[in-house]
Amino acid sequence: MKNLILPFLLLSFLTSFGQGSLESDRLALIALYNSTNGSAWFQKAGWDPAGSPGDSPCGWYGVTCEGGRVTGLNLLQSGLDGSIPPAIGNLDQLKTLILGWTVLTDSRTAYNPPYLPIPTEIGNLTNLEHLDLSGDNGINYDIYGGLPLPGPLPASIGNLTKLTYLNLSCMLRDMMYHGSLDGPIPATFGNLVNLKYLNLSNQQFSGAIPSELGNLTQLEHLNLNGANQFTGTIPASFNNLTSLKTLGLGYYNNNCCGSPAFGGLTGPIPNLSGIPATADVSIPNNSFNFEGLDLNISLIDLYSNQAKIGINYNVGTKVLTAEAGGIIANNTYKWYRNNTLIATIAGNKAYNVTEDGTYYAEVTNNAVPGLTLTTDNEVVTSLPVNLVSFSGSNEGEQNLLTWKTTFESNSQGFDIERSWNGIDFEIIGFLPSQGESNASKEYSFADKNPFFTSYYRLKQLDFDGTFAYSKVISIKNQNAHILAYPNPAKDHFYLKNLKEKGEVSVQNLEGKVISRQIGEPGKPLTTVGIAPGLYIIRISGMAQKIVIMK
């Protein structure tokens, strides 16, 4: 009998101290403590990282246990500073994990968690029902902080199919800052079919909103508001979200980091009639026109302040058209030349040009009260060439400009001019004329060093010294984006996505240059000689706010 009992006891001992035990939970908690500067936590009563095997973590601050396992961890406002360790995935009985938002005490900024990405092992926590890794860019008048969770989300979050609550937002107290989660929302989020609350607001997510979110038919609150830089249309699958109470797709420019003034969500807006009429739906500060907005107007509560819409000029017919979308019969177009109203036209988007000048249009739709769409400016001049078209596109690391003429006489060529703000232009190239001709001619020019958003115009030069400018076009380069980390920084910081050597300037909020350094990919930049505070880093027309702490 003793021979049978001893192996049984040994097996029980090994099991109780192995993987999937309270001891493995204790070790995972210690790993979290060590990787997030636990000795400096604001609240850590009972935590004993130097304890012995077999010690119970169930009395530690924020730790909840059931059935001999850790099932809850709530370190809200505890000041974690560092990284979430892969060992977090060993807490496989967790139902609640809250490492959420930050606080300030005196002159110290507390924030959590970390300067490293959320580990893939988070997907091992398949019993999770409540996950909160939200951040706070909590500020006072002197110290600014942010949610340091840079990088894309792991697709493994899609394994957490029991989740009913997921919060990865950055709570803004200052609209000049945002979180650092970037990249696309993983399509695996569509697996989280039990979610009722999903908040990804005020981060830097980009790309298309995945249609798989339409699988979340129990969702009541979906918040994608803030500094996220989504592109494309609202997924048609959102019509399946029949339990929604709030839907936030608004973009709020934080005036930093090279962020565009408006969000990239565009129309047409799909049929959203499946969303309850009582839901609060908001889509402000994006790039929608009236297309689909007029048909969903009874469902959308906030839609004001959309980006400028397109305007086209046909040189041959001398006709301007404003691309406002929607049912044209419901649209009214007010045309301006040199900032003076010259025509009001209902139900017709075209205007016949008779004089040179700078034109734009304001468009309203009688089905969409309170929204006026404004076109870009279109400069109409009698160029010494007949410029039929001028356009551009982002081609990976470069911007490609193309234009076409149908008549050239006495033309010397084209200066290509670029601006980072649409106001101050510099010459970046010249293409000579292809000679006098009545035939169509095509030109192209590649800008190999574009800004995050670049503005371009052509200066057509004549041999007699006269010249004329084309319209201004803009191109957004998704690849030209930098991210300073760690942020806040102490002795040094790095620039993510920096692809080549260049001068980096550190400026105070008044624009005074405090430091100039040469930045290189993968190499740190020093904060020596820079006093603690909030600064703006600039390189190649891009900007990023950073907090420097000593």
From TrEMBL:
<dbReference type="Pfam" id="PF00560">
    <property type="entry name" value="LRR_1"/>
</dbReference>
<dbReference type="InterPro" id="IPR026444">
    <property type="entry name" value="Secre_tail"/>
</dbReference>
<dbReference type="Pfam" id="PF18962">
    <property type="entry name" value="Por_Secre_tail"/>
</dbReference>
<dbReference type="InterPro" id="IPR032675">
    <property type="entry name" value="LRR_dom_sf"/>
</dbReference>
<keyword id="KW-0732">Signal</keyword>
<dbReference type="Pfam" id="PF08263">
    <property type="entry name" value="LRRNT_2"/>
</dbReference>
<feature type="domain" description="Secretion system C-terminal sorting">
    <location>
        <begin position="485"/>
        <end position="547"/>
    </location>
</feature>
<protein>
    <recommendedName>
        <fullName>Secretion system C-terminal sorting domain-containing protein</fullName>
    </recommendedName>
</protein>
<dbReference type="InterPro" id="IPR001611">
    <property type="entry name" value="Leu-rich_rpt"/>
</dbReference>
<feature type="signal peptide">
    <location>
        <begin position="1"/>
        <end position="18"/>
    </location>
</feature>
<feature type="domain" description="Leucine-rich repeat-containing N-terminal plant-type">
    <location>
        <begin position="23"/>
        <end position="65"/>
    </location>
</feature>
<dbReference type="InterPro" id="IPR013210">
    <property type="entry name" value="LRR_N_plant-typ"/>
</dbReference>
